[in-house]
Amino acid sequence: MTALLNVTALDAFYGDFQALFGIDFELNEGEAVAVIGANGAGKSTMLKSLAGLVKNRPDAIRLAGRAIGDASAASIVRLGLALVPEGRQLFPSLSVEENLLIGAYGGERSAPWDLAAVYRMFPVLKERRRGDVTALSGGQQQMVAIGRALMSNPSVLLCDEISLGLAPIVVEDIYRMLPQIRSGGTAIVLVEQDIARALRASDRFYCLQEGRVTLSGRPRDVDQDTIRAAYFGA
Amino acid sequence: MSVESIHIPAAREQRPADAPVWQVRVGTRLSRFAAVAGIALIVALAALPAIASRNLIQDLIFVFTMLTLAQLWNVLAGWGGLVSVGQQAFVGLGAYALFAGIVMAGLDPVAAISLAGLFAALVAAVLGPLLFRLEGPYFAIGSWVAAEALRLICAQFKSLGGGTGMSISPGELSQMVGLKMVQALLGLRPAAARDVLVYWLALLLAVLVTLGIYAFMRSHHGLALAASRDNAAAARSVGVRTARTRYVLWIAVAFATGMVGAVVYLQKARISPDAAFSVTDWTAYVIFIVVIGGVRTIEGPMVGVLLLWGLVTYLAQFGSLYLVVLGTLAILIMLFMPTGVWGAAARRWQLQLFPTQRWLGRSESSPTPL
Amino acid sequence: MSGFDTIIEGVLLGGVYALFALGLSLIFGIMRLVNLAHGDLILFAAYLVLSATIALGLPLAVASLLVVITMFVLGFVLQRLVLERVLGDDILPPLLVTFGLSVVIQNGLLLGYGADSRRLQAGAFESSSVVLAPGLSVGLAPLTALVTAVAAVALLQLIFYRTSLGRAFRATADNPAIAQLMGVNERNVYAIAVGLSLAVSVIAAVVLGIRASFDPSIGPARLLYAFEAVIIGGLGSLWGTLAGGIVLGLAQAIGGRINPEWQILAGHLAFLVVLMVRPRGLFPARRT
Fold first, then answer.
1. What is the fold, at CATH topology level, of the domain defined by B20-363?
2. Among candidates A189, A229, A231, which has minimal Cα distance to A210?
């Protein structure tokens, strides 16, 4: 069985600087996979490559069998891969509801996510729908960012540091929504610096160090020392 | 030899006598050759009126004045980031100040030229703070509006011919400083001698402005300015304060542009608001020269002005078509050769006549300790 | 009574200036592009309408609609083939390219149509007037221009704030890279914006051509009026641009009443005064 998302020998460059070296990665339908690693390990670059913000060899990345390594970001989201970018990156000129609506700009993919569904998951956003996104709390902004990505009804949702800068209790609230997102048929890639939380929420994990995969597996099969070694280097 | 003072801590330490020393250099061997050739060329050009026809002298006045304007616009827009489409304002102001000085105050034309520059600088000093409020690209149109306003104001002065303009009679110019001397020296009639005098003034301005810009670009102010254009935030964070440098540059460019305007109209001896403030003559051509030659190089405008001269000679008779061709050429160059003819050549053959970049070179000799 | 006439005249003139300004404001707002050829493109549109009415014998309304479509396509192509290549962090290349375009269009029109003044024929419409109050009548054409300007602002406002295209415009203006993650094709959004800008300019061109005669040399002045209206009104607000156009029209009408030679100058000076006392314009947008 081939995976939903298949990454083979992915090298990513920023100009002359190589950020990723031969990354192999796969994600199955409805699965949650964590990508952990220290600062600068290449986690964000990997997500940007997947989302089309960094261009690659066409066949380095396959989504449902289709080579998308050099596709544009705008076309990739239409094919069902959405990114919740680091730092939320909401559009300040758009209201809360408009930020959600623009997530569906690429056209209607099949259910389940629409405005009503997002508001059901995050009722507070419905109350603030006409408001400015800049007036929201950090946690509420993160909800908008996640909701915005879901509006395209992705089969793969990439989450880049969604707990960054949020209070632990707010992070808890957001992570509690992940099973609901998965139950709609969306597979999730979690990039986090908070290793423990990411591993708890995931079926499998990959550990990156200096642009290479140093460890992968199921959280319960691996002990802490092994992860520490893969994370910081021996 | 252009070797800048170095400040490498390692050089102060004890080191083996044969260790190479790294030096920050600006010059290249070619640039030193160019300096010698340049001096020879200037001397030859200065002596040219002894043998040249009046037509050639007039052509070269055009070349020198346009070159000066192009160098000035290049430093302002290319390095300074102040993309002005209103430099005709300062040409016009300089020209009108010259006429006012001669007609209303009875000044000697040559003395009036520097006053014309000062007047242009004064207006620039007043307008600058206003126009600088406009964000980047909007500054371009803002400067154009200012030029139009100044054109309309100049047209209000009935004593300077109002909207239709005026001429200065040859008689009023015949007493000009130096004119008699040139007449005697070269055996010319007053009109031709005035051309020669203007020619020398234009040559002098072109040389001084080019060298001045070169010196500025190599000074720390120039470097700071180039840095801030590349990345304003980064430059600020390392303590580069460019707002004042830009303001001073804007005024200095207006000063020199005003003098060029005065020199041009001293030769023409006839002025009108539409001609003196013409956006086509004093900005479009100038931008064309810089674009075709190469933005952000000192050599670019030199190449560009020679190309424009060639095109003018062969195409000017076609009027509008000529401008269509020039405009199209400029667009194509921006699209496909954004560094211009000189920029492309310089990259291909590693040429630098006026080096402004610094590079590290190895030297076997010990530099003077700091 | 003449003072009142002057005010009416100024307000109506302002409607025309607002129409000049809308297209300029639109693409600056979305893509930070200042199109120095804007005025010449308005003139180009006016000549296209002229040709369509004279050479093809079409009614003015049909000709205008045809030219609206033509200019939209032209704008789209212009962005994709030319402007797109020079847009970036450096403000110099797009300014130089659009300035070159201005020179090319202006002189191209001179070659094609000559330097004579032309006018669009709108039949009885151009000379008829409406009586607003006893003793106060207003030309139908200038009144229509103002109404058209208000309608155009309302329409653009609707597109900006009530459609998904408008959301894409604003999102791209905020952050083009993130907008792409939403499936917004930045290149198409920019091309549509330029197309829309030129399409709106056709309305400005038709109004210009009915009200007064035009010749190829007056393009740059239209750019300056458009620009002044945008800055006086305040960046980023279309209603502000309309108000800015009216302020400029009033300044010109009042200046021209004092001395006909001062009409244009008064507009420029009003602009400089606003820049001095309210650098962000009279009605700036909430956000910058």
1. ABC transporter involved in vitamin B12 uptake, BtuC (1.10.3470)
2. A231
